[in-house]
């Protein structure tokens, strides 16, 4: 009997939570559409609305169903712990744990949906008050607002001009630094070229000396080979 009551309450809670979630979704959509259509509306958007009353009613009903289901689970726990059902204790504990998990899931879903709804309503209230302040400010001081707007635009133009001047100066400074660094590189390259040009005459003289020694060694080697050849011929004919 307790399990039947628990299942019935769980089915009712499931249907209520689905309707509750749809209500929150439709509430957000309707507020967005109304804000787009009535952007200059000075009356509060949320006070006394039918959706707010429906939300409060459904929240109370769901809380009552959660309380009843909690009571049923407590009764099932008492029955499980009684001394007359030792053989079925494991199965009953499994069933009880299943119903407790379902209750926990429904409770978590309810609190999550309720928190989202309250956050949307608070945001809409804040936006409505801001819009009313803006409208009252615009309607109360039209000429002063126009002058203030012109001053603000002029101030923004001056700030943009200052920013452009600062960017131009920074670009010029960066160009100057790059040219200075390039001039230093060119100077170092020029000094290296001068050093190599100064070293080239010594290198040329060294190469000429090496060539002269090679020629002298070639002549000496040729003379030695010729003398040896003549001596071999003379020895062969004698």
Automatic annotation (TrEMBL):
Compartments it resides in: Golgi apparatus membrane
Span list, region Disordered: 28-49
Annotated TM spans: 219-237
Gene Ontology cellular-component annotations: cis-Golgi network; Golgi medial cisterna; Golgi membrane; SNARE complex
Principal subcellular localization: Golgi
GO BP: endoplasmic reticulum to Golgi vesicle-mediated transport; inter-Golgi cisterna vesicle-mediated transport; protein transport; vesicle fusion
Molecular-function GO term, any one: SNAP receptor activity
Highest taxon of source: Eukaryota
Presence of the UniProt keyword Repeat in the record: no
Membrane topology (UniProt): Single-pass type IV membrane protein
Protein role: Involved in transport from the ER to the Golgi apparatus as well as in intra-Golgi transport. It belongs to a super-family of proteins called t-SNAREs or soluble NSF (N-ethylmaleimide-sensitive factor) attachment protein receptor. May play a protective role against hydrogen peroxide induced cytotoxicity under glutathione depleted conditions in neuronal cells by regulating the intracellular ROS levels via inhibition of p38 MAPK (MAPK11, MAPK12, MAPK13 and MAPK14). Participates in docking and fusion stage of ER to cis-Golgi transport.
Protein name: Golgi SNAP receptor complex member 1
Species annotation: Ptilonorhynchus violaceus (Satin bowerbird)
Designated gene of the protein: Gosr1
């Amino acid at each position: 009997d307790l399990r039947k009551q628990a299942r019935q309450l769980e089915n009712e809670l499931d249907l209520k939570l689905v309707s509750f979630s749809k209500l929150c979704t439709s509430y957000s959509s309707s507020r967005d559409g109304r804000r787009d259509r009535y952007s200059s509306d000075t009356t509060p958007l949320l006070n006394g609305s039918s959706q707010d009353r429906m939300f409060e009613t459904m929240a109370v009903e769901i809380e009552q169903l959660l309380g009843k289901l909690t009571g049923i689970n407590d009764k099932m726990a008492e029955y499980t712990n009684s001394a007359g059902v030792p053989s079925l204790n494991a199965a009953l504990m499994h069933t009880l744990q299943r119903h407790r998990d379902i209750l926990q899931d429904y409770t978590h879903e309810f609190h999550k949906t309720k928190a989202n709804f309250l956050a949307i309503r608070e945001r809409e209230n804040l936006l409505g008050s801001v819009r009313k302040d803006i409208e009252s400010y615009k309607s109360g001081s039209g000429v002063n607002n126009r002058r203030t707007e012109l001053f603000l635009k002029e101030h923004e133009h001056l700030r943009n001009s200052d920013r452009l001047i600062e960017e131009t100066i920074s670009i010029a400074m960066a160009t100057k630094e790059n040219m200075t660094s390039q001039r230093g590189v060119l100077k170092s390259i020029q000094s290296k070229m001068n050093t190599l040009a100064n070293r080239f005459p010594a290198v040329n003289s060294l190469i000429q000396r090496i060539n002269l020694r090679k020629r002298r060694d070639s002549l000496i080697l040729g003379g030695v080979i010729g003398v040896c050849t003549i001596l071999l011929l003379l020895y062969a004919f004698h």
